[in-house]
């Protein structure tokens, strides 16, 4: 006590205190730790993320395009991104650098704005509209980051929700922040890409309609191979996933056996199927088209696995738009087209978490059916105002000229995308012919009547969902409506996000399932309780600082009197 009294009374006490503060700050900068006291451990990186960052062989550069005068929601998102990247930087031991950039800034060594570059990459902004005293204000926000590793660059979407951003949407985006960034870094730094088979031979598209799918998704993240199931004796186990997109010709029993046994051996299936023949090209020419069954021959196999795609079309009041000549005078108006439904996910799974609007084209409904040991999760479904029409169905371009009869749209949440998980039973169990068995044994493959360790697959009843259209010889991003492109109704749907989420979940090479499963609880204040204690909080906020100042003044005066009073004696 005498020691501290001498310091206080001495003339060097201020200098000593300053040196101590400097020493404490230096020590804290060199040796520091954080304790995460949140229930969700939102500030604690998963083990998989730490492993990815620890194993980096070179530096990672991250540019985040959330710098600017944004509304509160996106300011919060920008702060969360910074906090997450600080944690990444710590775990990466100096091998990660990040920077917040404004989309209005020019690129390095180029007279081009970052926003224009992002749009050219298919990374379209969110058009925010807000009401001010002066009127309506529009603001373009690019919720993206570009991750660079060596010479490779990958975009990361930081927000995929609906444009009307709220607390829940931001909360979901924050929960996915670690996964989105870690997954991007992993895809750039992984030594070997997983092999993916794209099924051909049954009329699947291989033209410009697959440009966005192939060039911007599959080739970037996977070792892509084309696979004609008809011409191979079996589907090799080295393929992590078999993807089927809009087949138009029937599958033989041997082809189905190969798909079935691939699933039984642990291979993943991702299927985007149109069971009805209904195309916009025919509708443009004749102004009407009859949708009829393609007879793909996959119904019995899917039924065995726990799903049934129905021979019908989903019509929804929540839909995308088409131009219609309402008065027959060549003056077109954009009206909702009920055959182009727009889906909002329930965010009930990692695949559809924080997912924006997803657009469909002539979509069929899906029923989940009894299948022992199989868990079914609906990933996409219609709005609360939908209906189905059975095939054969006449689709007329004149249908939406008049307002739809709303009373017919009474069905809600019609499933159109389903995740199936569990120990699948082969559709050929107890019905395998000798010829089929011989075809397997010839290549050293024994028949498996059931999946041994459990597996998963996703079925989507829309083949067009992951295809793109072409405008002026330029392929549009998947989900972009060519009829509204360039108009005030142009909107970038989240079809690509849905696809990548499906692929990531099924393959899960990175081991980041823990990071993606994070779920932040939205802590809302009790408004009634808050109003009742309003006066107490106001009093505390006003009185507490005043009392602290007064206390400091009293202590200062006491010390001063004690010091100079002792010297006077």
Explain how this protein is built.
- The longest helix is centred in the C-terminal third of the chain and has 35 residues.
- Strand 24 and strand 25 form a beta hairpin.
- Helices cover 33% and strands 24% of the residues.
- Helix 4 runs parallel beside helix 6.
- The model has no long low-confidence stretch (mean pLDDT 85).
- With 569 residues, the chain is of the alpha+beta class.
- It is built from 15 helices and 25 strands.
- The chain has four domains: 32 residues; 156 residues, Glutaredoxin, CATH 3.40.30.10; 314 residues, no CATH class; 35 residues.
- The strands form eight sheets. Strands 8-7-9-10-23-22-19 form a seven-stranded mixed beta sheet, with helices on both faces.
Brief digest:
This protein is an alpha+beta fold and 569 residues long. It folds into four domains: 1-32; 34-189, 3-Layer(aba) Sandwich (Glutaredoxin), CATH 3.40.30.10; 195-508, no CATH class; 535-569.
């Amino acid at each position: 006590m005498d020691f501290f009294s001498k310091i206080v009374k001495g003339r060097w006490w201020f200098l000593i205190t300053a040196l101590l503060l400097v020493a404490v700050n230096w020590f804290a900068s060199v040796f520091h730790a954080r304790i995460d006291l949140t229930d969700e451990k939102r500030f604690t990186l998963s083990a998989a993320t730490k492993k990815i960052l620890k194993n980096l062989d070179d530096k990672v550069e991250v540019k985040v395009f959330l710098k600017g005068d944004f509304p509160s929601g996106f300011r919060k998102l920008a702060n969360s991104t910074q906090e997450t990247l600080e944690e990444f930087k710590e775990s990466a031991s100096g091998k990660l650098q990040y920077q917040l950039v404004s989309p209005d800034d020019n690129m390095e060594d180029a007279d081009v704005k970052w926003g224009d570059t992002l749009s050219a990459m298919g990374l379209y902004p969110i058009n925010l509209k807000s009401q001010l005293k002066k009127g309506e204000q529009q603001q373009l926000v690019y919720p993206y980051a570009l991750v660079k590793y060596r010479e490779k660059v990958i975009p990361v979407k930081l927000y995929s929700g609906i444009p009307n951003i709220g607390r829940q949407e931001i909360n979901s985006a924050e929960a996915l922040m670690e996964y989105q960034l870690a997954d991007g870094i992993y895809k750039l730094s992984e030594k070997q890409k997983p092999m993916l088979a794209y099924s051909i031979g049954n009329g699947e598209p291989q033209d410009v309609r697959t440009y966005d799918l192939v060039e911007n998704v599959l080739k970037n993240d996977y070792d892509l191979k084309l696979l004609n199931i008809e011409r191979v004796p079996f589907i090799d186990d080295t393929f992590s996933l078999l993807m089927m997109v809009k087949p138009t010709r029937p599958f033989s029993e041997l082809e189905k056996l190969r798909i079935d046994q691939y699933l039984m051996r642990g291979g993943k299936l991702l299927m985007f199927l149109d069971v009805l023949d209904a195309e916009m090209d025919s509708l443009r020419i004749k102004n009407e088209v009859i949708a009829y069954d393609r007879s793909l021959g996959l119904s019995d196999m899917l039924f065995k696995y726990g799903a049934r795609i129905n021979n019908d079309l989903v019509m929804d009041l929540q839909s995308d738009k088409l131009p219609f000549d309402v008065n027959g005078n060549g003056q077109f108006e954009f009206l909702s087209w009920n055959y182009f439904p727009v889906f909002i996910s329930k965010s009930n799974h990692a695949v559809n978490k924080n997912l924006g609007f997803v657009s469909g084209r002539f979509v069929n409904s899906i029923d989940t059916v009894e299948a022992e040991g199989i868990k079914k999760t609906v990933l996409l479904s219609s709005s609360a105002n939908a209906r189905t029409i059975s095939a054969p169905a006449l689709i007329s371009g004149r249908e939406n000229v008049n307002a739809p009869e709303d009373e017919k749209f009474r069905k809600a949440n019609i499933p159109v995308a389903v995740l199936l998980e569990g120990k699948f039973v082969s559709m050929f169990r107890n019905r395998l012919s000798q010829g089929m068995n011989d075809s397997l044994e010839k290549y050293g493959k024994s028949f498996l009547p059931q999946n041994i360790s459990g597996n998963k697959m996703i079925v989507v009843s829309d083949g067009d969902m992951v295809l793109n259209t072409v405008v002026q010889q330029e392929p549009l991003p998947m989900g972009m409506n060519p009829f509204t492109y360039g108009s005030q109704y142009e909107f970038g749907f989240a079809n690509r996000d849905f696809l990548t989420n499906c692929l990531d979940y099924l393959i899960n090479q990175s081991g980041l399932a823990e990071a993606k499963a994070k779920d932040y609880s939205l802590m809302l204040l009790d408004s009634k309780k808050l109003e009742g204690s309003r006066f107490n909080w106001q009093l505390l906020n006003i009185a507490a600082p005043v009392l602290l100042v007064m206390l400091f003044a009293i202590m200062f005066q006491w010390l001063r009197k004690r010091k100079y009073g002792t010297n006077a004696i």
